[in-house]
Amino acid sequence: MKTILHKSETRGHANHGWLDTHHTFSFANYYNPERVHFGTLRVLNDDRVAAGEGFGTHPHDNMEIVSIPLFGDLEHKDNMGNHGVISTGEIQVMSAGTGIFHSEFNKNKDKETQFLQIWILPNKKNVTPHYDQISLADIEKPDELYQILSPNPNDQGVWIHQNAWFYLGDLSEGWEGKYELKDKKNGVYFFVIEGNVTVAGQKLNRRDGLGVNETESIEIAAESLTKLLVMEIPMQ
Predict the structure, then answer these.
(1) Nearest C-alpha neighbor of 113 from the set 46, 51, 20
(2) Whether residue 44 is found in the same domain as residue 77
(3) For the segment 49-101, what is each residue's pLDDT rounded down to a tens digit?
(4) What is the pLDDT of residue 236?
């Protein structure tokens, strides 16, 4: 088993006034040659967007983009005709493929929005762009790692063009379990949204990240009430 630890305080950070953001991996003006990616996980940004502010229309191509709101509401518009709001308890996915233009703004004028922005390198280039968003209310389960993303359009959660699976866990203090990899050639990146947890023998706190590979199962133990994001992705 191999592991790589990314403590919360070692992340890249930028505060633009309207956007306060932390980068687990190299992004924008933050560059660390040892933290460009973990396998096909290319971007993990922890964004806080001020009231009424946001990202103006901008392009993407050949990237699988996942957004998970943690607090507040994010208004989305794109050139495919999609226009809606993603809120806490939902997940949004875009396969940029041949190219898309979109914007994201904090829907609220009186409070900030917090969300995770995740980019995964695809296993197919120049696909037809795809957009989806779902509520997690019907699939979330307490004290269980429940699937929110997969490579299969007919499976639980949203889907992307990659051999990847995402899970969320709302875990009680004292919960213990293990994550069994879907594909033993993959790696797994754990990100602690809230709480304290031990993963593969490593103690993790709020906003810490841990990459694990070259194993088939990983032990997990929640030390407090914990919200954990688990991302299994190809290493190449």
Answers:
(1) 51
(2) yes
(3) 999 999 999 999 999 999 999 999 999 999 999 999 999 999 999 999 999 99
(4) 87
Closest by CA to 2, choosing from 227, 163, 145, 189, is 189
Q: Is 8 helix (H, G, I), strand (E, B) or coil?
A: helix
CATH number for the domain spanning 223: value is: 2.60.120.10
Please list, in sequence order, all residues whose beta carbon lies within 8 angstroms of the beta carbon of residue 76, skipping any fewer than 6 positions away: 82, 83, 84, 85, 86, 92, 102, 103, 104, 133
CA distance 134 to 149: 11
Closest CA to 107 of 143, 154, 140, 75: 75
Domain extent at residue 229: 145-234
Q: Which residues lie below 8 Å from residue 61, measured CB to CB, with a gap of 6+? A: 96, 97, 98, 99, 100
Domain count of the fold of the chain: 2
What are the structure tokens assigned to 53, written together?
């502010």
Model-wide pTM > 0.85: yes
Do residues 65 and 126 both lie within one domain?
yes
- pLDDT for res 164: 98
C-alpha torsion sign, points 162, 87, 180, 119: positive
